[in-house]
Amino acid sequence: MTSFKEFARACKVIEGTPGSLDMTALVAELLEKVSPEELPVVTHFVMGEIFPAWSSEEIGVGAGILYSALAKSAGLSVADIKEIVRETGDIGKTAVKALEKVSTGQATFSSFMEENSDLSILEVFERFQAISRTSGKGSQTSKIKNLQYLFNSASSEEVGYIARISVEELRIGVGEGIVRDAISKAFDVPSDEIERAFMLTNDLGLVAVTAREGGRDAVQSLGLELNRPIRMMLAQVTPDFDVALSDLGTAAVEWKFDGARVQIHKEGDNITLFSRRLENITNSLPDIVEAVRENIDAESAILDGEAVAIDENGRPRAFQDILKRFRRKYDVHSTAREIPLILNLFDIMYLNGEELLDLPLVQRRGKLEGCVRSGDKIKVDTQYITDDLDKIMEIYNDALKAGHEGVMIKNPQSPYSPGKRGKNWLKKKPVMETLDLVVIGAEWGYGRRTSFLGSYALACHDPDTGRFLPVGRVATGFSDEQLAELTELFSDLIVTEVGTGVEIKPEIIFEVAFEEIQKSVNYESGYALRFPRLVNVRSDKSIEDVETIGRLEEMYLVQRERN
Ligand SMILES: Nc1ncnc2c1ncn2[C@@H]1O[C@H](COP(=O)(O)OP(=O)(O)OP(=O)(O)O)[C@@H](O)[C@H]1O
């Protein structure tokens, strides 16, 4: 059994290692060393996760609960903890500092002394599991007690990492890419095969265990499973139709519906729906569940589509309306009546026991059409196979006239590539340059807006280090109503508060329009946006979708060419 102390020591070394290759080697060493039961846990912990992202288990610990647990463990007040946060600016250091006071000042917490600590990795995980399983009245107190137990049983080397993992903010620079390569190195399976298995299973813990136990063959045989989401295939932007046509020759052209992505799993009468972020949204969309149950002629299937919120004339409603449906947890039936949806299906990955990923799109399409009875709730819309530029223009204009976003231009011969943003799917919509950036901080307002968070700090992603790099703030484009909604949304994601500034766990994506990208020494990314304004809160996207620093650089260069 590996102690949590060993894990904490490894994290400390990794944290102090600058190069991603060295980091990968250290993570590989850690994965090799732990026991088979510990392996999936460590695989997630090292990325600052507790459960696989799509799992229905969630720890549900925010700053409030964490501060209370630290305060109780240290015999301090929550205000004292906030004061330490202000000094250190980091939740891990805060935990260490708060509890150090205890170990030096009050002998009663003798378990805090290093030599007494023997927490194992699995014990920490089991406590987190217990925390995630508390619900209803009294759950807050119970979460605090469980965390308190961990803090009081841990040594000073460990508390910082326990605090950070409890809010899923480990920040040692290890992301999915490094873990994928580390699994490959530790268990001698090619990295692209680990990647493929990950895209199909969405669970690096499972992939690591499989690689260790069964090697390359076992990893290759990991495949689709009903009720476990696969990564969505994604599209690249095409600058123009003729470029797309010269890339593809003949193309399969479909409307790009203005809604939100849904992946549908059908196993008999059991229907499960996943969002673009692969969250289970089945309970929010009972009308879609019903429509799938009644109109799909298949014993089992995995399907891909876009749910669109429609008005009384059948035209798409604002994007925020569809998100209201996706987020809704209560009164789902009345919301379904207020905001009716239509599900446009455009792909199929699995049918009656057969995996279809490697079939060409045109053949998958045939199978899709064969099992869907199109009606007013569910539909397989027209797909045009053409190499005629004028025809594509016509389809595009029709799509825009109908209130949709533009068109998708697909390679008719392409397989379904989970998680890939390649040239087999191209998208074309009217130009408005926007960036999907993640919110990492905010400011409490003043005057009329003191109780609202505003002036949101935005960041792009650096895939080499796994870090989020600031690119500026967005403070315009918000209504009071929206600020109230956002304040509520962010309240669970506050990591630290210093003065009126708050640090926010990177989770929520803003789609931001701007005048221009500028070079800037004020932000760590080296870039800033001129006149940024909020276009949409992209609750349908996850942090893997945040623009990379490379993309910002690219856009900056293109813009310089143009001017
Ligand atoms: N016919 C269609 N085929 C594929 N995707 C479609 C179709 N109609 C609408 N879509 C939507 O368009 C998206 C394709 O663009 P992309 O893969 O880049 O996703 P995205 O990052 O969500 O992009 P966007 O911000 O343009 O919606 C899909 O994720 C899906 O939600």
TrEMBL record:
It is an enzyme of class 6 (ligase). Keywords: ATP-binding, Cell cycle, Cell division, DNA damage, DNA recombination, DNA repair, DNA replication, Ligase, Magnesium, Metal-binding, Nucleotide-binding. GO terms for biological process: cell division; DNA biosynthetic process; DNA recombination; DNA repair; lagging strand elongation. Its cofactor is Mg(2+). GO terms for molecular function: ATP binding; DNA binding; DNA ligase (ATP) activity; metal ion binding. It holds the Pfam family DNA_ligase_A_M. The active site is at residue 256. It catalyses: ATP + (deoxyribonucleotide)n-3'-hydroxyl + 5'-phospho-(deoxyribonucleotide)m = (deoxyribonucleotide)n+m + AMP + diphosphate. Its EC number is 6.5.1.1. The keyword Mitochondrion does not apply. ATP binds at residues 254, 261, 276, 306, 346, 421, 427. Residues 334-462 form the ATP-dependent DNA ligase family profile domain. Gene3D superfamilies: DNA ligase, ATP-dependent, N-terminal domain (1.10.3260.10), DNA ligase/mRNA capping enzyme (3.30.470.30), Nucleic acid-binding proteins (2.40.50.140). DNA ligase that seals nicks in double-stranded DNA during DNA replication, DNA recombination and DNA repair. Belongs to the ATP-dependent DNA ligase family. NCBIfam families: dnl1. PANTHER family: DNA LIGASE, DNA LIGASE 1/3 FAMILY MEMBER. This is DNA ligase.
